[in-house]
Amino acid sequence: MAQGKAVVTMVTDVDVQARHAYVGVNNRAAGQAAAFLIGRHLRDRPSPAVAVVVATFSYTCHEDREIGFRSLLRQRFPNVNLVEVIKGADSGPATYEATQRFLKTHGDLAGIYNVAGGNEGLAAALREGGLTGKTFFVTHEVNRITEPLLRSEVIDFVLTQDMNLLLRTSVEQLSAVCEARRARSQAILPLLTCSKYSL
């Protein structure tokens, strides 16, 4: 920006002084949506254990998702026991190892929310722990890893956004800045909730 270049962030935001516009979903609301799905699924169970998987708080989207998740569980579903944050480093192997360590300590897990990547490692750890289909699993983005896991019912719901709309809107915002038109500070996209039946 200091050099006069147009800067638009996608998916995760940065400080407002470091970009012209942000394009993506409201990540705090995305975390709330995950909490709502998990909380409603577990609302009749006494103190079900739920964990959240994070990668790094360098990404504000991860931090916002976790904040939204925690706050809505606390407000709406006090019966749910948020037992631990699993640090998966946004990679399959790291998430697998962290989840395995967690399961050795805690055993049963009623629900899990992955705010980050590494879903293949998380799915493998759940499978080895005999928790596939037993642990309610919510994560983000439909891609080559999450789609088959969603189709096979390892993942229950994926929160995502229309990638074509994301790209079109980002180009529109960049063009507005380059042409000295006013760009929106934030272009919030609709949050989409996918199950195997809506792919």
From TrEMBL:
CDD domains to which the protein is assigned, alphabetical? PBP1_sugar_binding (cd06307)
What name appears for this protein in its UniProt entry?
Transcriptional regulator, LacI family
Listed InterPro entries? Peripla_BP_I, SBP_2_dom
Q: Which residues form the Periplasmic binding protein domain?
A: 2-179
Organism classification: Bacteria, Pseudomonadati, Pseudomonadota, Betaproteobacteria, Burkholderiales
